[in-house]
Amino acid sequence: MTNRWIESSIEINVFWMHVSTVENTQWKNFAELKAVYPKTDYIGNDRYVFNIKGNKYRIVTMIRHC
Q: What predicted TM-score, i.e. pTM, was given to this entire model?
């Protein structure tokens, strides 16, 4: 196993942890989301950008608050 493969697998795990959290959490508003993920940005039209690993990656997702 190379270090690059290990780094990639760790990054994939981080990505899926974020996906799982977002899919299984019901935030009532942006303030609640921001309390858990303070580096998240609202970009309009129910879309949010999650910065992963110090902005190395970004996940853009649509969230409709309850």
A: 0.70
Asked if 66 contacts 55 with a C-beta cutoff of 8 angstroms, the reply is no
Encoded tokens for 20:
């799982």
Please give the share of the chain, as a percent, with pLDDT higher than 90: 20
Q: Which residues contact 46 (CB under 8 A, 6 or more apart)?
A: 62, 63, 64
Q: What is the DSSP letter of 15?
A: H
* Helix extents (H) in the chain: 3-23, 30-36
59: closest CA among 17, 5, 7, 6? Answer: 17
Tell me the residue type at 15: F
User: Per residue in 28-46, pLDDT tens?
Assistant: 999 999 998 898 999 999 9
Residue type, 37: Y
